[in-house]
Amino acid sequence: MPTIKKKPMPEFTKAPTEMVQLFERAMKDFPMATQRKMFGYPCAFVNGNMFAGLFQDEMFLRLNDDDRAAIRKEYGTPLFEPMPGRPMRNYVLVPRYVRNSPRLLRSWLTKGMEYAQALPPKVKKQRTKTD
Hints:
Strand order of the largest sheet: 1-2-3-4-5
Low-confidence stretches: none
Radius of gyration: 16 Å
Mean pLDDT: 91
Helix content: 25-40%
Number of helices: 4
C-alpha cells in the first residue's frame, strides 16, 4: 500500500498583544457575545456561531453576502484565508482603516453579530462513549 504523505501544518504566529487588546476593547460593546479561543486565537460567538476573531496579525469578520460585498468594494479587503487557497465562506479580513476607527469597527462588528444571530443556533454535539 502506498504511503500517504501528509502536508505539514503551516506554522502560525501568535496574535500581537496590540491586536488582542483591540479585540478585547471592541468586544466590550458586545456583552451578548461569548468569547473563546479557536486554535489559540480569541474569537467571538453568538448562539454558537462565530462572527469575529483574530488570526495571526489580522482580524476577521463573518458577514452576509451584501455586507461582505460592500466592505470588499469600499476597502478592497480580501476574503479570510487561514490557509492559502482555502477561504472561509462568508468571512473577510477587517481592513486596518476600519480597525483604527472605533466607530467603524463597532459598526462592522454589529453587522457580523447580527448576521450570526440570524443563523440557526449551533447545537453542541453530544459526545458518545465507544467501548
